């Protein structure tokens, strides 16, 4: 039986080499039989209809990615991919138009979009349409007409650099992989109990809680990350997890956190001391400094796993709650209300995990709620009118993410693929605006980040982009297998899902660095547009 399965999967691998297998699968794709465009290294140029530093970087990137094997057996006639973009507005925000059409014919390559971000998605599809034939050592593109757009406007991965510090260059490498998968959001979990790695000119002692003097993100680092992400049409959402998971805040500023000896053995138990009015002032000042570095409208304030028992043991908190007539739920409500004021000051929309609602807190109606607990909790939150992000089915650190145990651990991609955001939802599904896979990093660093995330997260990417009806694991497997090989050729350590052959360039080096480096002038231009 095992030999039969291996044979079938090997045949699937052959289909990947000779068929057209785009990931995420487009909304509409029509292939023309017996029609192919021969191409070779150096034969393709790209001509955009607008001048844009941001898009030009994407063009340069893809021109370098089209042909991983440069010593081919043939040369081809020169051909230009004409890119028509209707608007030169480079505003990147939730709901930006990412649609595109791609027409491939003999003698004509046309990509059309309304924004540069739709054009970027089209460039990724075009790259995947270029098929390398290992037998003849040649490249070709099958003639096709593609109409494509995302199912959900929020498609992301949460990157945790608080449990293990991740260097700026590796963050940029992660962004490369997100862009290849048409993710459009990097949720950056910057601070947790274990470390505080964000430079502050207002409160410089915060980074006393960094893992080391070099394990800190400067303002310049953050701006480079945001600019680089923009060249992929990726929004960067910062998360500062409060009032729980707050121990790192108290390393440089001990007055900010609670004292509770019975809970101190677990660093994750330590919350902020919100009885101290200076705590709220501190947060507002710090967020006022940091928010301009992250131009997106959304700002994640955590809110998860608050250990109220520590509040009940801290003498300052106990006295204050008695004075105010507060329960711990009332205190949590007070804190979230004050955070709402701070969000207005910095002109941001608050995003939280679902825990405050579980505690009985009434969040501001415009809060975006990220649901990590269950589909039942999601249904209640949707019914309450909150716009929601689904994450509970896509925890990349779990061995058994959805209750299904697989012989091969990588086959958990199937669980991710089958986890449609609307599974089990009976009402108010329109309040789901997307989803995020979460890579919490207690046991993950730069050394193993790629292999923990890829190729499994490809299933999440397709689930969030493609139509609800594109849901066959069997049909997706050869496409995802081929794309995983393609990602490997681009320097992402994404392994196989079945027995196949994935030839790699001899000079390929998994450097764990980005595909290109932005100059300071490019960063400035990108951020100013």
From TrEMBL:
One of its GO terms (cellular component) is lysosome. Coiled coil: none annotated. Its EC number is 3.2.1.52. GO terms for biological process: carbohydrate metabolic process; glycosaminoglycan metabolic process; N-glycan processing. The active site is at 305 (proton donor). Keywords: Glycoprotein, Glycosidase, Hydrolase, Lysosome, Signal. InterPro entries: Beta_hexosaminidase_sua/sub, GH, Glyco_hydro_20_cat, Hex-like_dom2, HEX_eukaryotic_N. Residues 152-467 form the Glycoside hydrolase family 20 catalytic domain. One of its GO terms (molecular function) is beta-N-acetylhexosaminidase activity. Residues 1-19 form the signal peptide. It catalyses: Hydrolysis of terminal non-reducing N-acetyl-D-hexosamine residues in N-acetyl-beta-D-hexosaminides. Transmembrane segments: none annotated. It is an enzyme of class 3 (hydrolase). Residues 64-129 form the Beta-hexosaminidase eukaryotic type N-terminal domain. Pfam families: Glyco_hydro_20, Glycohydro_20b2. SUPFAM superfamilies: (Trans)glycosidases, beta-N-acetylhexosaminidase-like domain. It is found in: Lysosome. Belongs to the glycosyl hydrolase 20 family. This is Beta-hexosaminidase. It comes from Dictyostelium purpureum.
